[in-house]
Amino acid sequence: MTTIENQTFPQERALYALSDALVKNCRFEGEADGESALKEARNIKVEGCFMDLRYPFWHVTDATISNTHFSGTCRAPLWYDKNITIEGCSLEGIKALRECECITLKNSKVNSEEFFWKCKDLAIENVIIEQSEYPFFEINRAVINGLKLKGKYSFQYCSDIKIENSQLDTKDAFWHTKNVTVRNSIINGEYLGWYSENLVLENCHISGTQPFCYCKNLVIKNCTMENCDLSFERSTVQVQVNGKIDSIKNPLSGKISANSIGEIIMEDEFVDSSKTQITLA
Fold first, then answer.
1. Is residue 73 within 8 Å of 51, Cβ to Cβ?
2. pLDDT (tens digit, 9 = 90+) per residue, 12-61?
């Protein structure tokens, strides 16, 4: 394996189509303002580098990127890639990953708008997302553990996702999702889970106004809910909450159990109240 070490690359396509190489302690920056530095690379390792130029890793296959900083001006650094491991990195540029496949991201920090769009087959572990809008848009098949997220409009139009041991401080999360399971996590946000199908939350703390409306086959097990008013409107549900639900409005059918419920709103012109069993336990 060729080693490229302690160099600066300011030019466009500086290491285009590089293969079977280690790129170590290099800087991709300079007045030439080049882009696409490692486009079409194959079987490479990138360690301890500084990425300041646009589009460095497009159409890359079989790469490991570690202890590397992607600056705020490193726009759209990873697109159309396959079999990539990213570890111990910080990603600050907008649109950091898009249309990638078989990606592992771990022990990293992110500050990237429109992060991780249209990607599939993902493994995410111990990642902090300091700020993002529309993170994880339209992703498929992901296993996520130890995610700390601050942002808006997360996990929209996703399918086949498992999330555990995470803290999601978000808004409008899980809209139009299918087959998403969240366990042992904290979810703070407004308008959670609207239009979802087969959304499961287990051993979670959930907070925020008007959650889980227009859901199909919503399952909530052994969870707590805080400041959750007007919940479950026009949804089919199986819900078991420890503690209080502030209010329930017009669920379509199913079962809802809680220790206490502040208000139940059932409007006959919209729903058949006989199809939903609501109990105190």
1. no
2. 999 999 999 999 999 999 999 999 999 999 999 999 999 999 999 999 99
In the numeric block, which tokens belong to residue 269? 């012109």
Q: Which amino acid is at 276?
A: T
Tokens encoding 233:
């409107």
Between CA 35 and CA 27 the distance in angstroms is 13
Alpha carbon distance, N-terminus to C-terminus of the chain: 64
| Residue closest to 281 by CA, chosen among 215, 236, 222, 232 | 222
- pTM of the predicted structure, to 2 decimals: 0.96
What SS3 state is found at 275? Answer: helix
Q: What are the tens digits of pLDDT across the range 90-146?
A: 999 999 999 999 999 999 999 999 999 999 999 999 999 999 999 999 999 999 999
- For residue 109, the SS3 value is strand
- Asked if residue 57 lies in contact with residue 65, where contact means CB atoms within 8 angstroms, the answer is yes
Enter the tokens of residue 230.
């007007």
User: What are the two backbone dihedrals, phi and then psi, of residue 131, each rounded to the nearest 5 degrees?
Assistant: -165, 135
Question: What pLDDT, on a 0 to 100 scale, did the predictor assign at position 251?
Answer: 98
Using a 10 angstrom Cβ sphere, with 0-12 exposed, 13-18 middle and 19 or more buried, the burial of residue 84 is buried
Beta pairing partners, 257: 240, 279
pLDDT tens digit sequence for 209-250: 999 999 999 999 999 999 999 999 999 999 999 999 999 999
- Quote the DSSP letter at residue 95: S
